[in-house]
Amino acid sequence: MSDQEIIVVTGDRTTGPLHLGHLAGSLQNRLRLQGQYRQFLLLADTQALSDHQGDYSRVRQSVIDVALDYLAVGLDPKQSTFLIQSMVPELAELSFYFMNLVSVARLERNPTVKNEIRQKGMERDIAAGFLSYPVSQAADICALKGTLVPVGEDQLPMIEQTNEIVRRFNRMVGSDILRECKAEVGKVARLPGIDGASKMSRALGNHLPLSASPDEIRHAVQRMFTDPQHLRVSDPGRIEGNVVFTFLDAFASDSEQVAEFKEHYQRGGLADSAVKTYLEQVLLELLEPIRLRRAELAKDPDQILSLLMAGSSRAREVAVLTLYQVKKAMGMFYF
Amino acid sequence: MSDQEIIVVTGDRTTGPLHLGHLAGSLQNRLRLQGQYRQFLLLADTQALSDHQGDYSRVRQSVIDVALDYLAVGLDPKQSTFLIQSMVPELAELSFYFMNLVSVARLERNPTVKNEIRQKGMERDIAAGFLSYPVSQAADICALKGTLVPVGEDQLPMIEQTNEIVRRFNRMVGSDILRECKAEVGKVARLPGIDGASKMSRALGNHLPLSASPDEIRHAVQRMFTDPQHLRVSDPGRIEGNVVFTFLDAFASDSEQVAEFKEHYQRGGLADSAVKTYLEQVLLELLEPIRLRRAELAKDPDQILSLLMAGSSRAREVAVLTLYQVKKAMGMFYF
């Protein structure tokens, strides 16, 4: 393995099935990188507990759900390594060492964490494990020797924090044991919710799951936020902030058709319902194969678990090597 | 192993050789418990890094130093299990899970941590690993199934925090997987420094190392804080806050002689120098065998390392079992 090799590390907290926001924000990126580079997909069950304390059965079930979502969209365990965070204890071990390299004040300034704390209404009662989850993410990336991290825009401060830790560690041990990583933001940095809120999120209830049925898709598209000023069909409509057009930009393959719709909508004379019917068709074509593949795969959960076990073992080989290098550099190999 | 079995877990941060404060505050307690109960002695190298970031060679050397101190005072690896924290990665792993069970606000209220932060002048720049070291201590105790923890008085809030985590975890998983522990404070809850400061501490430079030579002992006793009002021998002297008498209470075996000295000193007519000569003799008798044993043992560091390796392996067997129970209870055993 050359030092210059690009390794992709990415993943999801296992707090529930994935949705369209994940597809646009990160899954499409991972599909593009798959086959090009070695890629680790982390099912972060421990991190999930940092804001779902005690919700053990949900986190456990979500490990299977997220793995099913990965497989259904085309992520392939032969080309990408799927792993469960808690099955690679070296990730926790490295996180523990990294905790000494970051100040509490620095963690409290992390914009992603600050936003999430506000959004979740946690304030001063946040768990220590939530405040320090950037440290845990840094450990995940470093332990697996990641150099490229496909993320949504809101996760960019995490990569900055990771590289700060990497530089601090390398400086302290006087050797470039750990490698810095680069973020890769998807084509759609942040997909809005169907209600027009700035981010699609299960917690906000404005999401469309990847496993949505045709009925759910129709329902979601009907509820979708458009231009509240576009009262009569003949009126000119706005496409900025209009979720239907944002979704078309993100998911429609016929960009000429989309451009024509936009022009017509802005000029006036194109009904919301016409654009929505088109989007519904786009989403149906996108999601129906995913839903069917997922339903088929869900029949055999043992096979899912067995591929997660195999992937976790392969990931552990890499993490064990990193921990050996890290502890040796810190003088913590006594023999 | 019955559920009612008493297991002692205790240890020291490896930031330098131990001193008389450790002997009075915890080592004497451990010697008393040794042979009665299963006892784990933890050399906390990772925790040492939480306030000695990057000081890797010092922490590494101190692991040997502290082990030598343990052996020299009579702690016996055949009766007590010596272990190195970083050699039992399950301690870090459990700590990682516990981080989700404690709020940041609760950690910031911990009196021991607050005092240490003030004393070390760390304020808001404290490492996340330092703020959360009570979580790590709780994990050490729980992973080794500790029920009795010999501590100095200043560490009492740590035991409270540990039991809070134990109760929270057991409630969350709905089963008494972890056991609460009890503190055992030594005969001398807190030995003052030779300057009369409330606590003997290497960081404050007011300590007397266990390996002190006769010259160092004499020097320390000469510098020792007595009663600043006791100007003439014939004056009555105060024994409260008088370090020489505090040390005699802690270390002299002839309590009748000490009582006689106290009475005479308070009445007037007993010179500081006379009491100091006596204390010097007491400390010499106490420390000289320790110093000689230590010097002998220090000739063969490989033997020290080998006993630490063996002890860490034995401790790891216990910790692996705990982690299995903990992860199973959290639903994190997927197979």
From TrEMBL, chains A, B:
GO terms for molecular function: ATP binding; tryptophan-tRNA ligase activity. GO terms for biological process: tryptophanyl-tRNA aminoacylation. CDD domains: TrpRS_core. It catalyses: tRNA(Trp) + L-tryptophan + ATP = L-tryptophyl-tRNA(Trp) + AMP + diphosphate + H(+). InterPro entries: aa-tRNA-synth_Ic (IPR002305), Rossmann-like_a/b/a_fold (IPR014729), Trp-tRNA-ligase (IPR002306), Trp-tRNA_synthetase (IPR050203). Pfam families: tRNA-synt_1b. Transmembrane segments: none annotated. Keywords: Aminoacyl-tRNA synthetase, ATP-binding, Ligase, Nucleotide-binding, Protein biosynthesis. SUPFAM superfamilies: Nucleotidylyl transferase. One of its GO terms (cellular component) is cytosol. Its EC number is 6.1.1.2. Belongs to the class-I aminoacyl-tRNA synthetase family. This is Tryptophan--tRNA ligase. The lineage of its organism: Bacteria, Pseudomonadati, Pseudomonadota, Betaproteobacteria, Neisseriales.
